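[Structure tokenization] protein backbone as discrete codes
[Encoding] learned vocabulary of local backbone shapes
[Protein] chain in single-letter code, fold in tokens
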Amino acid sequence: LLTRLLMSPSLVHARHGSANSAFSTFSSSSVVAPPPAPEGNGPREEPEPSAFDALGRLASFPPGQTSLGRLLEVHKALWLPAGFAAMAFTGNWGMRPALMTGLFGAYGIVWVLKSNIYPDLGFYNTEKSRIKGAVDYAVKFAMIGVYFLYPYLAAANTATLHPLAAAASTLGFCLGGFFHWAGDAQRYFELKYNPNHLITDGFQSHVRHPSYLGEILMWLSLTTLSGPLNPMSWLPVAWLSMITLAVGIPEKEKSLSRYGKKFEEWRARVPALIPRLW
């Protein structure tokens, strides 16, 4: 969510209603027609079609520039090494930091894989996602560095990890990952093959914002694992929750409101973050 805040209002439920029909038929070659603009008011760059790769990501930039999506791939690739570095720095190779390194590192690896299979095009193709120069890159990289608190706090915590805390953190992390990654996949592929519609089936028939729900569950799990009695452990999840409720959901639903009565009926029927089971 921190990353989405950097380019708000182009947020996670992107591309509803703004899809280009050319995007619904992906080419098997290395380039495709320009993909749909992400949801929100941020303008999309309009280069030649050959500037897009097979996944619909903007592939070429002026010298010295890149996209937030590319920065995030580098950032997430460092999560597993960061876990091991925290263990080495503190000299703590116990169960708590080891489990944190596994979960935290897995998140980073899955992010990189996901970004190269079903990317969030809002991180690659909007003007707001453009990174212009080394200073801009460094500032945005540092802004999402709050997540590196987790492996350090876990490694610095020498208290014995209670089995129930270990079970709860892994359970919550896996359930959160299901909502987060699978929800993103549903959105990407539905809008790839059936653009320009409001998604109300699948995950969105049970909860309006499955990816936000998944992220919150995952960070609560890492807070539990790093040590919930340490106030610093709550900083990432507190920030995530704040920007989800204050920025993410309002911006997203403002954009989706253009679907009128269909959106209003869906919003009245489906909860925002607590899934209904029927």
